[in-house]
């Protein structure tokens, strides 16, 4: 049984062959939606998932690399509870978030890949207790920085995917570095988008999970990283078919590339 939870005290039912029994700590992938996780599960995770606090946790060895994938569901609460559970139950060496996102930056187009330099909670505002939105007590900045080492590996994986991808009827995708703004609402109007940009002008993309995972990872002193594919422009042109289609497949391709690289050059360190 994985260290940290005796008898499945958090409602998690672990398999006896859990990857956490391996001496090496696994990489934990946090993927919100079934559509975003499907191709990864079909490719790497043949076994039935382990139910855990409303999430499904899949376990596998990928080229000798121990990996767990958590299909957590949409939103900050789901993402945070899943991140906490996988940390306590599987003792991962790092958390990696994958999925789709809406564009905030004007240089982004659908199909582009954004690798996180950090993440912030755009709904968090303790003014006037704390000066400036997005901050909790003790935070000098609203941005929780990502691991530069893992971000570099994700960027290389993203470049490999972008070089052979072609978003339908658009220019070839490009890879960007930037900050993810995370909130509890789906952003699909220009007014909502402009409001986020006005408060956090350095944010590149918007989503509903990344900052929650980042906050849990930071609390546990674990490195984290994130790569998401721009599926929409976070405005009235939002098209669910694109969000749940090509963008999800492209995001899964980035993770597949990352796992291949980590299998050849194992992840070590917390930078």
Describe this structure as you would to a colleague.
Helices cover about 30% and strands about 25% of the residues. It has about 270 residues and is an alpha/beta fold. The chain has helices spanning about 35-45, 75-90, 150-165, 190-200, 210-220, 240-245, 245-265; strands spanning about 25-30, 50, 55-60, 65-70, 95-105, 115-120, 145, 175-180, 205, 225-230. α1 crosses α7, α2 runs parallel beside α5 (about 210-220) and α3 packs across α7 (about 245-265). Strands 5-9-8-6-10 form a 5-stranded mixed β-barrel. It has a single domain, classed as Rossmann fold. β2 (about 50) and β3 form a beta hairpin. The radius of gyration is 18 Å and the shape is globular.
Write the layout of secondary structure elements.
Blueprint: E1 27-31, H1 34-44, E2 50-52, E3 55-62, E4 65-71, H2 76-90, E5 94-103, E6 113-121, E7 144-145, H3 148-163, E8 175-182, H4 190-199, E9 203-207, H5 210-219, E10 224-232, H6 240-243, H7 246-264
Parallel strand pairs: 1-4, 1-5, 5-10, 6-8, 8-9
Antiparallel strand pairs: 2-3, 3-4, 5-9, 6-7, 6-10
Helix pairs in contact: 1-7, 2-5, 3-7
């Amino acid at each position: 049984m994985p260290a940290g939870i005796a008898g499945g005290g958090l409602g998690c039912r672990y398999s006896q062959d859990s990857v956490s029994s391996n001496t090496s700590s696994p990489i934990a992938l946090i993927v919100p939606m079934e559509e975003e996780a499907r191709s990864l599960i079909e490719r790497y995770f043949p076994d039935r998932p382990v139910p855990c606090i409303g999430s499904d946790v899949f376990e596998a060895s990928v080229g000798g690399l121990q990996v767990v994938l958590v299909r957590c569901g949409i939103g900050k609460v789901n993402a945070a509870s899943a991140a906490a559970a996988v940390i306590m139950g599987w003792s991962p060496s790092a958390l990696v978030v994958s999925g789709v996102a809406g564009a905030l930056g004007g240089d982004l187009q659908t199909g582009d890949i954004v690798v996180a330099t950090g993440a912030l909670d755009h709904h968090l505002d303790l003014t006037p207790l704390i000066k400036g939105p997005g901050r909790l007590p003790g935070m000098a900045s609203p941005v929780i920085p990502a691991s530069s080492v893992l971000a570099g590996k994700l960027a290389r994986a993203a470049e490999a995917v972008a070089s052979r991808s072609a978003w339908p009827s658009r220019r070839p995708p490009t890879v960007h570095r930037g900050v993810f703004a995370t909130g509890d609402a789906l952003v699909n109007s220009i007014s909502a988008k402009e409001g986020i940009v006005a408060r956090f002008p350095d944010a590149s993309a918007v989503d509903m999970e990344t900052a929650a995972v980042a906050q849990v990872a930071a609390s546990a002193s674990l490195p984290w990283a994130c790569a998401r594919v721009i599926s929409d422009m976070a405005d009235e042109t939002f098209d669910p078919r694109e969000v749940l289609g090509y963008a999800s497949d492209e995001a899964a391709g980035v993770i597949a590339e990352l796992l291949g690289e980590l299998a050849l050059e194992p992840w070590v360190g917390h930078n």
